[in-house]
């Protein structure tokens, strides 16, 4: 079994940090539902401002509030306004990679959804894997840019 991306909130901004709340991350249910993240699901959190990386579980907050609140010990890893990447994962057999279609939401500074993307791995005519990023409102793929290119 291998670990793959199942859903991602990319560039969502921290709205609050609550050291005295039970550990977790509080997220807007609308964002979670659009990406496919469930309550109590474990997620990886990567702080784009500091490089901090943590793992915690999701609790749903107030619908429509656009909140992203780090709770408990996780509150020490961020400041209000920090952009985060929140990634849910799933375990699959390697040969199932072409069956995975994770949703990726990108965000404005006010935590409005800017784009809805889908990641896809497909095989070319020679059977080699290729990676594509698809925009929800556009059937063609966005060219994937490898680091340094």
TrEMBL record:
SUPFAM superfamilies membership: ADC-like
Binding site for substrate: 56, 72-74
UniProt cross-references to Pfam families, sorted A to Z: Asp_decarbox
Record EC number: 4.1.1.11
Cellular component terms (Gene Ontology): cytosol
Enzyme class: lyase
Keyword terms: Autocatalytic cleavage, Cytoplasm, Decarboxylase, Lyase, Pantothenate biosynthesis, Pyruvate, Schiff base, Zymogen
Principal location class: cytoplasm
UniProt-listed GO biological process terms: alanine biosynthetic process; pantothenate biosynthetic process
Cofactors named for this entry: pyruvate
Mod. after translation: Is synthesized initially as an inactive proenzyme, which is activated by self-cleavage at a specific serine bond to produce a beta-subunit with a hydroxyl group at its C-terminus and an alpha-subunit with a pyruvoyl group at its N-terminus.
Reactions catalysed according to its record: L-aspartate + H(+) = beta-alanine + CO2
HAMAP family: PanD
PANTHER family reported in the protein's UniProt record: ASPARTATE 1-DECARBOXYLASE (PTHR21012)
Family label: Belongs to the PanD family.
Biological role stated in the UniProt entry: Catalyzes the pyruvoyl-dependent decarboxylation of aspartate to produce beta-alanine.
Protein name per the record: Aspartate 1-decarboxylase
Organism: Actibacterium mucosum KCTC 23349
Gene name in the database record: panD
């Amino acid at each position: 079994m291998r670990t793959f991306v199942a859903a991602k909130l990319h560039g969502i901004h921290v709205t609050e940090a609550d050291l005295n709340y039970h550990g977790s991350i509080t997220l807007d249910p609308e964002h979670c539902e659009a990406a496919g993240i469930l309550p109590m699901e474990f997620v990886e959190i990567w702080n784009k401002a500091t490089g901090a990386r943590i793992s915690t579980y999701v609790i749903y907050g107030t619908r429509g509030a656009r909140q992203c609140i780090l709770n408990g010990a996780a509150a020490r890893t961020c400041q209000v306004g920090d952009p985060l990447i929140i990634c849910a994962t799933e375990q699959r057999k390697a040969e199932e990679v072409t069956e995975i279609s994770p949703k990726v939401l990108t965000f404005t500074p006010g935590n409005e959804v800017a784009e809805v993307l889908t990641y896809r791995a497909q095989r070319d005519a020679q059977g080699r894997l290729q990676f594509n990023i698809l925009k929800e409102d556009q059937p063609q793929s966005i060219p994937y840019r490898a680091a340094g290119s």
